[in-house]
Amino acid sequence: MAATVLASERGRRCLWALQCQKWIWRQRCLKFASATERRNIGKVLIANRGEIACRVMRTARKMGVKSVAVYSDADKNSMHVAMADEAYFIGPAASQQSYLAMEKIIQVAKISTAQAIHPGYGFLSENTEFAELCKQEGIIFIGPPSSAIRDMGIKSTSKAIMSAAGVPVTEGYHGEDQSDECLKEHARSIGYPVMIKAVRGGGGKGMRIARSEKEFLDQLESARREAKKSFNDDAVLIEKFVDNPRHVEVQVFGDQHGNAVYLFERDCSVQRRHQKIIEEAPGPGIEPEVRRKLGEAAVKAAKAVNYVGAGTVEFIMDSQHNFYFMEMNTRLQVEHPVTEMITGTDLVEWQLRVAAGEKIPLMQEEIALSGHAFEARIYAEDPNNNFMPGAGPLLHLSTPPPDSFTRIETGVRQGDEVSVHYDPMIAKLVVWAEDRQAALKKLQYSLHQYNIVGLSTNIDFLLSLSGHPQFEAGNVHTNFISQHHDELFPAKQATPNEILCQAALGLILKEKMITDAFRVQSGDKFSPFASSSGRRINISYTRNLTLLDGENHVDIIIDYNHDGSYNMQKGSAQIGLPIPKYLSGASATGTQGGAIAPMTGTIEKVFVKAGDTVQAGDPLMVMIAMKMEHTIRAPKAGIIKKVNYQEGSQANRHAPLVELVDEDMESN
Q1: Please, what sign has the CA dihedral across residues 191, 196, 200, 205?
Q2: pLDDT value, residue 2
Q3: How many helices (H) does the chain have, and how many strands (E)?
């Protein structure tokens, strides 16, 4: 009991500290209110969509600033459009023709008389040309000067600037010679494993690890291809890859008066596909002295490029807590809410005020760290299939109730669709408590309250991850998922018989609903198609039904009783009917007749032609879908019978991409 009272008292003290910090911030904001009036930000256009657009709009509304949304054809009924004070259509679903169409967005800003543009993250947020275009048109770009975006956006340039500013950097090659041989020679000199990185952009795009010289050129080509697609620049750099490093980043903020501060660090180590999945602040196990050095190094980085606004300086950290500059993201980060939770700040409000010419609301000595926060990214993806992203309707969506210590950052509602054209993130679940252990318990409790029906999500995986003993102990690093794969992905257990019966009943009742509807529409009550059992007389009837439980076929005997009831033996849950033999060539696993599209996307590259012999695992095609590059590989050895898609063509989910036959069948 005493321990509970003590914990509650600590929570009240932390809350009081946060409230005091917010009061200081508000007073300082009032002091500089005249600056906002001078720059006259009364209306802001958000050049983005989804969660971040809604996030910016909430703060704009709180500040009395009107918001303008832009939307593509795919987003006309979206949440961010409904939230905005004004909304303007800007083009087709493809981002190149909508959210990346600079001239269209500038035109909307003029038509709507918006004084400023907030780019969010992704899309145009780190585009030098767009920042310059805003300046030329007299529109406030809520972000750093274009020179800072340019210098920090090119990794080779940023490394040189950081080294000159006294910020620790990793060993690597950042030169202009981009020939295969030059890059390969530098990789050999640095020593494997090496990281190949696109010099522009971020988010894990154009990033590959080469663990040996044998695989270097394949990884190089893949990195270049993805970089060209994402950033229109295939230049790369090579740097030493640190095994099992931590990914630690520092939130910085600068203003137009030469001030810069840090708001402590976030640990973003646990990742899949080089993309973050769960973040926390502050970093577990980081001592105050290391925290101070991290912050001071980040401020040096910001001042070296005269940084203005919100930015993040990313470091890799080894097991001895030595850290090295990795890159700077010249925008608001996806994971910024965890920093807001431990500092009691609103970074979007800071962005708007600093863009209007005000000074930073708090000086370094006034920024206090209180408690601990986690953010879990909830994605439409299948963790059991290499985190393959998905799309589809949110038939049911229920979340934990938001409160002062629980935030649901989202851009979708029940009934909305996760579009194949954009990032598959559904929401960010953010929690705060007085210490890491309490915050982790709150995260796990909140994840249990999240329920989504209609598509695959990573919620169960996040629960497994956050409950892993090594994660609970704070022993995190970028290889955490692969190192603990067996514990995080336990072998699937056979589905209980009662669940199998419920699933079978669901299929029977769905079939009955369809046939009843047919009978009403056709008017022929004696049609055999108007009976789900295929019978026309009132007698008992027995039927066999086969379901799939993972890879296992489950046979169920169903008795249709004359009184309308059913008896069953065995059954299945979240399981579909097995694919008929005549469709086996287009099976979802692609193991019987070739390779199929895992999702709707564009064929970027084709490696094979009819008549080629391939081995299991050989690359057949590269597909771009949901902002990611997917390599389609041969499911087995054989001979290519037919290639159904050319480079640049669109393929729908489950479409057969390549037809493959066994060598002995081809010879016959």
Answers
A1: negative
A2: 42
A3: 20, 36
AA letter at 80: H
Residue whose pair of structure tokens reads 């910090």 in the numeric block = 21
DSSP characters for 460-487?
A: HHHHHHHTSHHHHTT---TTHHHHTHHH
Sole residue written with tokens 């996307």: 601
Q: With respect to CATH, is domain 37-142 assigned 3.40.50.150? A: no
Q: What was the pLDDT predicted at 462?
A: 98
Q: Which residues of the chain have pLDDT under 70?
A: 1-38, 201-203, 518-519, 522-540, 563, 571-593, 627, 664-668
Question: Residue 164 in 3-state DSSP?
Answer: helix
| CATH topology (fold) of 1-31+246-490 | D-amino Acid Aminotransferase; Chain A, domain 1 (3.30.470)
Q: Cis before residue 635, ω within 30 degrees of 0?
A: no
Beta-strand ranges (E) seen in 151-286 are: 172-173, 194-198, 207-210, 236-240, 246-254, 260-267, 271-272, 275-276, 278-281
What pLDDT, on a 0 to 100 scale, did the predictor assign at position 588?
37
Q: Which residues contact 226 (CB under 8 A, 6 or more apart)?
A: 198, 205, 206, 629
Which residues are identified as catalytic?
Answer: 331
**DSSP per-residue letters across 10-34:** HHHHHHHHHHHHHHHHHHHHHHTHH
Please name which of 203, 199, 175 lies closest in space to residue 187, comparing C-alpha atoms. 175
SS3 of 362, please?
A: coil
Query: Which three-class secondary structure state does DSSP give residue 245?
Result: coil
Report the pLDDT value the prediction gives residue 522, as an integer from 0 to 100: 66
- Look up the CATH architecture of domain 171-240: 2-Layer Sandwich (3.30)
What would the DSSP string read from start to end of 528-552?
GGG-TTS--SSS-EEEEEEEEETTE
Q: Is the CA virtual torsion 335, 340, 341, 342 positive or negative? A: positive
Helix, coil or strand: residue 640: strand
pLDDT 10s digits, 269-321:
999 988 899 999 999 999 999 999 999 999 999 999 999 999 999 999 988 89
Q: Which of 175, 265, 187 is nearest to 220 (CA)?
A: 187
